């Protein structure tokens, strides 16, 4: 168990070593974690859901032609693959709606920021 935990921790630190960057504060670590989730984890989960769906279709239509038990198992795999797609796309859409509505990361106000002293407003 400890070896698996160490291997997992080292694998998450590999982007830091490969890019020769150091995590300077918690914000950099948070953005690194978000990048890992968006660029690695989400595509892997979509690929797994797709493979499960294709494997279920293969079992249903090719291997299950003569066996009802294999055909039923294939239908269940196809159903769970579609449920996985639906859940991932729904959560992805909700997150995009929330971030667009709340405007995370937008530090400026609707007018483009606060004017500085002595500067002209509305150029």
Automatic annotation (TrEMBL):
Keywords: Membrane, Signal, Transmembrane, Transmembrane helix. Pfam families: T4SS_pilin. The chain crosses the membrane at residues 44-65, 77-98. Residues 1-20 form the signal peptide. This is Uncharacterized protein. It comes from Candidatus Kaiserbacteria bacterium RIFCSPHIGHO2_02_FULL_56_30.
């Amino acid at each position: 168990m400890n070896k698996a935990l160490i291997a997992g921790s080292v694998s998450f630190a590999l982007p830091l070593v490969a890019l020769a960057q150091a995590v300077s504060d918690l914000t950099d670590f948070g953005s690194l974690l978000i990048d890992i989730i968006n660029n690695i984890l989400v595509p892997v989960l979509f690929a797994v859901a797709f493979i499960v769906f294709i494997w279920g279709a293969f079992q249903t239509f090719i291997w299950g032609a003569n066996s009802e038990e294999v055909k039923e198992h294939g239908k269940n795999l196809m159903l769970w693959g579609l449920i996985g797609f639906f859940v991932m796309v729904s959560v992805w859409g909700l997150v995009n709606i929330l971030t667009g509505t709340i405007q995370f990361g937008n530090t400026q106000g609707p007018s483009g920021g606060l004017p500085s002293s002595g500067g002209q407003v509305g150029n």
